[in-house]
Amino acid sequence: MNLLHYIQGRRKGKEAHRIEREAMQDAFLREALEGFESVESDHATAIRRMQQQITDRSHPKGRRILLRLSVAASVALVIGFGWYFLLHETPQTSVLSEATPTETPVNSMRKDKKLAATEQALRQESKESAMQDRSQQRAGSPSAPPAAANSEMIVEEMDISAVELMEMEEAGTEAPVEPVTPKPEEPFDELQKPTPAVAEALQGKAKDVLIREASSPKAARQIRGKVVDESGDPMPGVNIAVKNRAAGVVTDAEGGFALNVDDHATLQASFIGYETQEIKVDTSQLLIAMHEDARQLDEVVVVGYGVQRKASVIGSAVAVEESEPQTIVPEPTIGRRAYRKYLRESLIAPTDGECAGMKGKVRIRFNIDSGGRPHNLQVIRKLCDSADREAMRLITEGCDWTQGNTEVTVTVDF
Amino acid sequence: MHKAGQPGKSTLADEELLSLYRTTGNAEYFGELYHRYIPLVYGLCLKYLQHAENAQDAVMQLYEDLAAKLDRYDIKVFRTWLYSVAKNHCLQMLRKEKHEIRVDFDVQIMESDMFFHLFDERRDEEQFEALRKCMEQLPEPQRISISKFFMDEMSYADIVDDTGYRLKSVKSYIQNGKRNLKICIEKQISQ
After folding, report:
1. Is the ipTM of this complex over 0.85?
2. What CATH fold (topology level) applies to the domain A221-293?
3. Domain ranges in chain A?
4. Residue numbers in B near A346 (CB within 8 A)
């Protein structure tokens, strides 16, 4: 017998006993059973519905993987976008028809490609959101995003994801864009094809997005590049900015980047400890070599949180000579204040006999590994067993840390 | 793309699914893993949120959150990790809504394995003798409930049928009986 049967009320016999006895030794199971007993509802149906939703979400339907590659936030908004149209179909179509197309013929080919990619993504999302939507409505909690007020923002986001989709398409290696054809054997057949009205709305919207991009002066073209250091090794994390514009990207793990720029734009590649490189864009493939900047390094001052140029530091920071070993204390990536807040708010006060109601401090010393995760945790000030464990848990499950060359000590108040 | 569609995915251990998800990034693996724990996570959320729809939202939200940032964690045992993450998530939701959090001081203390071994087939004489003595000292309802649960392997509902006690009483007889037994046996053995 499984847990579901037990939840549904079949509570007799050896199997039921087994679950009950397990719950005595397993806090997870025990608390779950307490939960099912304390709230009256059809739990088994709810569980099956959620399991179905998880299966739907995690099952690769065509281009799912491609979407995961794009920024998570924009994916979320694209989902919202899909919902938005399904729920506000008619009014939105009429608004869209007012948009005046001003596209230039030069770019129309590229835009068609982009349009196709965007539309694929939208269609994919709308299909999935239609399914989710249906089950959401069944559950009686429609969670449609607030539509009208957000439409501008959604459009902005779409712009980004359209560009990303196109880049991936052009790269052509990891994520080829293929047309999504409805599979007849799937039970959601009627939902696969958007209704004509929805398709029209989607198309209109996608056009609107592309028009905005095209209307910027000296239309963008895509360049790709790679950043290497003096020995030719790729440099991840280098800031690539377009001079005099807000746009910019950071190089990936292989030192690669892709960016849409105007013709004759200038790129600036910068990385702490290296000379900033300026490169005129004249080809669509760039190789940027960075040179170490010895001078810049002795101007770097440790200020407790992050690293700043000397010129921008006011107050009591002291310049450290390069010859002395510098102490760089790792910092929580979310910042000290947010980290203290995290410790305060995520703490689960122990309730066992030894520790219940105990007040005091637990101090833990640890190192940060190359992945930014705490390791070698040592309790250097104990309170009681479960408080010590709770403090360790908070740190292990907490945010990543910046790199440093010394250990960190964190005090958790109980 | 359909690698994960192999049969037998459901027979993989939690940690195997987890490492497959980490190496392939295929959401199906994590979906399968999370699927297993939905009943537990949902029950846990029900306990803290006391509201079926909110608990369902929490279950789905946790899935999205975890799928996105799983690789930032060094997870040894997925089950215990998920337990603490899910519990935290629900407590966090309560804090956000500024509800008062009821702290359950009646939480059962995790029993050491020693207690459960008392009722196993092979036990040492000294402990068995102690158990026998202590059982005799228990008040009758506790003794009956304990012996039916641990020795006859009856469920709570079976015991209710058998004895006519109320369900709540059976649970507390067993709970209190266990505590009394433990204290008594420890005293016996240390003598």
Report:
1. no
2. Immunoglobulin-like (2.60.40)
3. 1-23+42-51, 64-214, 221-293, 298-324, 336-413
4. 88, 91-92
